[in-house]
Every structure is written in structure tokens, then in C-alpha cells.
Amino acid sequence: MKSATKSGAKRRGDVTVGARPRKGDLATGSTAPPVQAPMSIAAAIGVQIRGLRKRLDITAAELAHQAGLSAGMLSKIENGSVSASLESLEALARALNVPLTSFFASYEGRRDCSYVPSGQGVTIERRGTKAGHQYQLLGHSIAGNLVVEPYLITLSGEAEPYPIFQHEGIEFIHMLTGSVVYRHADKTYALKPGDSLMFDSAAPHGPEELTRLPMTYLSIIVYTRE
């Protein structure tokens, strides 16, 4: 019989099941890498100045001379070990022929958020063979190369099967109400409330048998922006 830890929690491999999280443990179940600590403003400015200097293919000594600074001071600015005065930054901006604001471009990039109140998502009504399929967009990607499109999809009583959707990316669906036989490529899945399915959406997919209508499910489509 396997022994338990002093706290009564059982061990599974290297993970203690039921134990109280320790400082430094994951805050959630996600395996996404942690966000790196943001650079100080001095370090961010130094990175920008060094990058602009190298883009112009000039030495630190040359830039320091043109800006009226000592080579040692410029080195400290580029390394982020000192906070440059506004006068020094203005002189460097003139020497590099860039606006002063360009030095702050990498300092704590904006973290965007999309908020959609209940019932106020953008509604798209499908026509033709997809009549009765209503898509409500619940949010949108604001920046970056990754696009995430979360939809609340409702199939009404007039909906017809349509198992041949195809598009780039990965799709995740989670059933909320009703039931359906959902096709992906050469396989079908009987989905009821609480069931989930995630798949490569480049393969033909969609509801093949509408076993109970109306039905609703959450669909999240993820792909890279071109």
C-alpha cells in the first residue's frame, strides 16, 4: 500500500495530488510560459538606442561624439545602467535623426483586451445552404500575429446540416444546448451539452446530423494573421 505525505496528499509521479500549492507553483493549470518581467524604462531606452545606432552602422564612439556625450556615458545609457537626462536623449535623437518618442517604443507594450457585454456580440446570419446558422462574435484579436475568433453559434429549427466547412487554423467547440453528430474529416462525434472537440479546421468539418434543435455551442477559431 502506497504511503501518503504528512499532509495526507497522495503523490503521482513528481506531482503531489491534493497538496496545498507552494510559492512558485503554477497559478493555473496552463502550461503557457510565464510572462517575462518587463524591462526598466532605462533598459528599454538603451535597447532602442543601441538598435538604432547599429542600423545606421555607426560606432558608439561616433554616436557619442555627434551627440556631445562621452563614450562612457553612452555605454551606460545603452546598457540601461543610468537614466539619461532629457537633454542627453534629445541630443541622441538628433544624432540618430529620429523622433525622441522612438526611444520608448519597446517599453511595456500595450496589453489589449476585448470586452463584449452579454447579447451585444456582432451577429452574422448565414444564408443559402447555411440558413439557420447564426454566428455571434464574442471578441476579437486587437494586435499581434495570432488571431482568435470566439463565436456563440446557434442552430435554429430551420437549420440544415453542413459538414463541409473548411478554413485555416485550429477550432475548438464546446456544446451548450441541443445535440448533434459533428463530422471532422472521416470521423463523426455525437456531441451533447458539456462535450468538447478540438481539431485541425483545414479538414472538412461541421454538423452532419442535427439530432436536437435548437442547439448552441461555443466555437473558438485560432489562426495566424497574414
Describe the protein in words:
It is a single chain. The protein is α+β, with helices and mostly antiparallel strands and 226 residues long. The chain folds into two domains: 41-104, 434 Repressor (Amino-terminal Domain) (Orthogonal Bundle); 122-224, Jelly Rolls (Sandwich), CATH 2.60.120.10. The protein is 19% helix and 31% strand. It has four helices and nine strands. It has helices spanning 41-55, 60-67, 71-79, 86-96; strands at 10-12, 15-17, 122-125, 133-137, 146-155, 170-184, 187-191, 196-200, 205-224. The strands form two sheets. Strands 3, 4, 5, 6, 7, 8 and 9 form a seven-stranded antiparallel sheet that branches. The protein has a two-stranded antiparallel ribbon with strand order 1-2. Strand 4 (133-137) and strand 5 form a beta hairpin. Helix 1 (41-55) packs across helix 3, helix 2 crosses helix 3 and helix 2 packs across helix 4. The longest helix is centred in the N-terminal third of the chain and has 15 residues, at 41-55. The protein is rod-shaped. The termini are far apart. Mean pLDDT is 81; it is low at 1-18.
Helical segment count:
4
* Global morphology: rod-shaped
Largest sheet properties: 7 strands, antiparallel
Class by helix and strand content?
alpha+beta
> What is the CATH superfamily classification of the largest domain?
Jelly Rolls
